[in-house]
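To whoever is on call:

I kicked off a structure prediction for a single chain this morning and the downstream step that reads the tokens threw a length-mismatch warning. I double-checked the sequence; it's 337 residues and nothing unusual in it as far as I can see. Pasting both halves so you can look.
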Amino acid sequence: MSELIFTRGQSLTRFTARSVRRAPGSRDSLSVIATMLARLKALVPTFLKQRLRERLRSEARAALDPNGILAALYTPISYRAEGAWLTWDKGVSTPPVSQLPLPPPEFRMGHADDDTQYLQAGLNSSGFIRSILKREGVALTPGESILEWGCAGGRVLRHFAAEAAHSDVWGIDQHATSISWCKQNLSPPFKFMTCTAYPHLPFADGMFTLVYAGSVFTHILHLMDMWIMEFRRILKPGGLALFTIHDEHTWQYLASHEEQRRFVDPRRLENFSGTLAHELSFLSAGGDWSTVVSFVRSDWIRREWGQYLEVVSLEPRSESYQTTVVLRRPGARISGR
């Protein structure tokens, strides 16, 4: 006879199936359920029971498959299926002589399909980054390393080609197909690596003078603080990190520019009236990173991120409707490697 024992203060209350049956007004619900389950089980044919067991084992193995778990942390490249094999080969590319190749539209992550507009947008972003470096007295001299987190097809990174001639300029992204294209077409002079949604990067402590990311934290739901601490680790003392966010200034802009809302709210779930009421807000949270749109208030940024890095400034609408957070790793700046 199985028993359920509940502790209530210093005394023990003991229940058994028999005591339940004896309880006043009880309809013997446990016994009825057990009887019904036993009868249902007896009605299921043996071959069907075996199939159900095999299906459950198969689904359990698939759910715990290490390859499937890893694939959920990033967007793998597209392999070619050839019988029992998955294969991949470098594509044929004929880069123009006068400039770096341009990525196809699918690797531009929503930025302009028009080549001229695409190049100009990247030039504008890199120009803004350079203006912040100049203002803060940080020079990208030979030997200073640069990292773009979420580089996609290299829209901004390509405009640091001069620095890449004498320094390590890295681009990383969880979209492995974009990184594969970049390796084939933009390396050299740049270096590329696939990362994941987990906040760990295989770079040495204090390696980078500059880390920047456009529209990455705008899609982050989990472990923001771990990412900030990881960037603190790989930044040199005195190095800068520039990350764009959606904040209250973004909210105000979208309230009066309905045509721009499709980029953050394609399903029209929000009308962006009033103010950004909460310190943290996530629209359509869950699933793939691209379905998450995060809004964070500037007071939260200063309080939370300011625990890990110095918050130098917040630059509203520096990247279209996004605000750029300028951060510095505390400490005296050390030049060179």
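Update from on-call: the warning came from a stale cache, not from the record. Cleared it. Sanity check on the structure: Residues 111-328 form a domain with the Rossmann fold fold (CATH 3.40.50.150).
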